[in-house]
Amino acid sequence: MDQYHEPVAELSPLDRDFVRALTSLKEEIEAINWYHQRVVAASDPQIKAIMAHNRDEEMEHAIMGLEWLRRAMPGWDAVMRTYLFTTGDITALEDATAGEGATADAPKTSAGSGSLGIGSLKRNR
Fold it and tell me: What is the pTM for the complete model shown?
């Protein structure tokens, strides 16, 4: 399968499920894009409503996949807790969690900070 970048035999069954979930998520997001374009381009109200319904169903599917990833794949929960259901400048949320530091034993992060304790990849200018 072309979605694998490493030998499949080296991936655990759970890792292969991650690939399946991530591939499905990409497909759902692509379908949302296609249906949305059809909604805004359609002139007939009935087909516009049908395409909007289909788009919204794909959103539901995408979110179900994200929720499974949040529960099953390390890192998703913390990042989602940092960025989802917030207000204000989204990019400022990362800056607000960047100064938390770490102990010698483990990264010092609050629950849901989104930090993996590896520091920022952004250059200081």
Answer: 0.73
